């Protein structure tokens, strides 16, 4: 081959390679991932989601692309985020972070397959027609995050029996707020625990809730299950530490970050299941035929270092029930 012909051939190959790569990316299926949460508090969850995808043969950047959208606890953003991903369009729409995200996705499309997470019963709020046969274009994972609110209050009462008043953070914008409030009030009456419910659904209300609990002299704190509180996790933990309030939360991530204790499901496992379902749908499964997955593994986690800082002696009976202790 002559030198000029060789240079032309190399140049043509070099030019064709990026075009081929772009063509490959263009034909790669795209998953839209929207969440009520924020990226900073969801790193472990996104990793678990990707793990589920890998288990059915999909790797981000290799044979699938993922576009992420985050509401950062501001539920009013979710309809626009869902519409943006539907307009993209995406092959599967993943809606995580609880009922607000799932409902926004459901309202945005009746054609694109949806895989969601909810904290409660997806049948009750109209996402699916039944747990075993969801019907329509949506299926997902029921994380049962709101179910154990009474259990959390009971554990807090056991660990801090001297607490005369327990403050309770509830987000009135969350779909499960009414049920949460009812369950906690019923549980409080059953054990004779006085509570003070402080509503907080945005930054200003959270600041007011902090001030209210200090003014009311709350001795302990229960933070109900809600993505808004998850996105403000560090602020809430710092507040409890500053005013020496024993506190209980919904997920392990709280005591890992310095909170006292948590009782709830294994959240990463739920997100792994979302990845599995998204991958199965990409392979041809219909959402209507994939039963709602219900998380059944609950874990009780105590941060003993935080307990010591609060001057709490954790009774052996409670220690024996803990699934994990953090030193």
Short description:
This protein is an alpha/beta fold. It has 13 helices and 13 strands. It folds into 2 domains: 3-145 and 267-297, Response regulator (Rossmann fold), CATH 3.40.50; 149-264 and 299-326, 3-Layer(aba) Sandwich (Rossmann fold), CATH 3.40.50.2300.
How would you characterize this protein structure?
With 327 residues, this protein is of the alpha/beta class. It has two domains: 3-145 and 267-297, Response regulator (Rossmann fold, 3-Layer(aba) Sandwich); 149-264 and 299-326, 3-Layer(aba) Sandwich (Rossmann fold), CATH 3.40.50.2300. The chain has helices at 3-27, 43-55, 78-87, 99-108, 149-159, 177-191, 203-215, 227-231, 233-242, 253-256, 267-282, 304-309, 316-321; strands at 30-35, 65-70, 92-96, 114-118, 138-142, 165-170, 194-199, 220-223, 247-249, 261-265, 293-294, 298-303, 324-326. The longest helix is centred in the first third of the chain and has 25 residues, at 3-27. It is elongated. It starts with a helix and ends with a strand. Mean pLDDT is 90; it is low at 1-25.
Give the SSE layout.
Elements: H1 3-27, E1 30-35, H2 43-55, E2 65-70, H3 78-87, E3 92-96, H4 99-108, E4 114-118, E5 138-142, H5 149-159, E6 165-170, H6 177-191, E7 194-199, H7 203-215, E8 220-223, H8 227-231, H9 233-242, E9 247-249, H10 253-256, E10 261-265, H11 267-282, E11 293-294, E12 298-303, H12 304-309, H13 316-321, E13 324-326
Parallel strand pairs: 1-2, 1-3, 3-4, 4-5, 5-11, 6-7, 6-8, 8-9, 9-10, 12-13
Antiparallel strand pairs: 10-12
Helix pairs in contact: 2-11, 3-4, 5-6
